[in-house]
Amino acid sequence: MMIHLRNTILFLFLLCCSATYSQAFYNIMDYGAVSDTTRLSTSAIQKAIDDCSAHGGGVVWVPAGDYLIGTIQLKSFVNLHLDAGATIYASRRSEDFSNFIRNIGAADNAEAEMLIGAVDARDISITGQGILHCRAERVGYRREPKTVVTDSITAREIVNAGQYGVDYQNKFRKVPPYPGAINFTGCTNVQIRGIQIIESSFWSVHLQWCDRVYVDGIYIMSDPHNGVNADGLDIDGCSNVMVSNCRIDTGDDALCLKTTRQNGRTQPCQYITISNCILTSSSAALKIGTESHDDFEHITVSNCVINQANRGLNIIVRDGGTVRNVVFSNLTINTVRKETFWWGNGDPIWFTIQKRGDIPFAGNIENITLSNIIAHGQSGIRMEGFSNRMKNIRLRDIQLFMEPENAVDKRSRNGFLFYGVDELSLVDCFVKWNKEKPEKEWERAYFFQNVNDLSLVRVRGDKAPGSSYDAFGYEGCENVIIEK
C-alpha cells in the first residue's frame, strides 16, 4: 500500500514540476528491476524505456535502491529519472556491455563501452538526484622510454624532467571493461540535470554531434590520482549548448570541447555557453581541443571557478580546425603541479597551435578575448603559435600571482609568455611574484617573442625576485605601442 501511495505522489509531483513530462509514467520495478547489485537489471530497465518510447514517451522512473546494469539505450521522448537514493552501478563483466556506439578518442580508447547510450534520438533526458557509478578499476605500470620528437605536446616537459632526474615513466591504465557513463551521438534536444556521475573508466559524459544540449547542476567525479581518460564532460562537435551550475572534479580533463573525426565525419563545436561551474582536474580544467578536426566558434565561458587544476584554461589546436570568436570572462583560477605523468605545468592559461602528424595545416586561434580574471599559478600564462600564428588576442584586467612549484622538476620561467602572435593587446594586466618563496628559475614578468602589432596599456610587473632579467623582454617584435 505504501509503495503504491509513493508512486502516486511522485507521479503527481513530476506532472506539476514541469510541463515537459508526459502523462505516461513507467516504474522500472514493474518491469522486473531489482535493488540488488548481484543481479542485472539491464533487461528490465531497457523494457521500460522501449515501452515508454513506443507509446509516445514519458518518464522512466528509477526509485531509490541499488541497481546493476550493462549497456542500456535511451530512446526518443524518454526522460530517465533517478530518484534521490537511486544508484545505478556498472557491471564489471565485459559481456554485459554492447557497442552500438563507439566512444571516440585516442587509439587506446577504441574499446571503451558505455553505460547509457543513444543514437539519433530526440527529446531525451536524464534527470534527478540519483547516481551513475561506473566502478572504474585501474592499475599502475611503467611505460617504455620513447624518443622525444620535436613537435610532441609534452616534449619540453620530458626533457626538463630528465634534467632534474625525475622518473617520467610511471603511469596508470584502465582495467576492462571501460564504460563511460553517458554517450549520446547525433541527438536533438538533450537534457542532463541534477544527477551525479562517479568513477567512469572513460569519458564520463560524451555528447557527440548533438544539437540543443542543456547540462545543468550535475556533479562528476573521477580519481585525481589514477583517473586516466576519465574526462568529466566532453562536448564533441555539438551546437547550441548550455552548460551551467556544474561541479566537475576529475583526473583527466574536467570540461572539454572537441571536434573528433569518426569514419571521415566531423562537425564544428559552435554556439556554446558555459557558466557558473566549479572545475578541478589533474590535467586540464577547461579545454578546447586537442582533437580539433573541425572549427570551434561563438563560445563564451563566464562566472566560473577553477581550483587545484594542473592546467586552467586551454586551447590546443593540432588537427586543422580553427578556434575563433571566444570570450572568457569573470573567472578565478588556481593551478598547482600534479604528478609528473599528467599533462600540465600548473599554468593558469595555455593556448598553443602544434600540428599533429603529417597534415598540411595545423589550424588557427583568432579573435579571443579574456577579461576580469584572477589567477594564482605555479606557472605562468602562455600563448604559443608554433605551427601557425595566433591572431587578435585581447587580454583585459588579468591579475597573475606567481606561486612556487611543489615539484622537483621546475618548469616555470615567465609570468606572461607570448610567441607567434599578431594583433596582441594587454590592458590593465599585472604580475605579482611570491617574494617569500621565490623560485630561482623565474625570469621575466612578460616575454614577447615574434609578436607583431603589440599594444600594452597600463601593464605592470616587476622583475622576478633575484632574476637578472628585465621585467619586460622583447625578441623579434614589430609595431609595439606602450602606454603607461
UniProtKB/TrEMBL annotation:
Keywords: Glycosidase, Hydrolase, Lyase, Signal. Residues 1-24 form the signal peptide. The keyword Heme does not apply. It comes from the Bacteria. InterPro entries: GH28_Enzymes, Glyco_hydro_28, PbH1, Pectin_lyas_fold, Pectin_lyase_fold/virulence, RHGA/B-epi-like_pectate_lyase. One of its GO terms (biological process) is carbohydrate metabolic process. Pfam families: Glyco_hydro_28, Pect-lyase_RHGA_epim. GO terms for molecular function: lyase activity; polygalacturonase activity. Residues 25-81 form the Rhamnogalacturonase A/B/Epimerase-like pectate lyase domain. Belongs to the glycosyl hydrolase 28 family. This is Pectate lyase superfamily protein. It comes from Dysgonomonas macrotermitis.
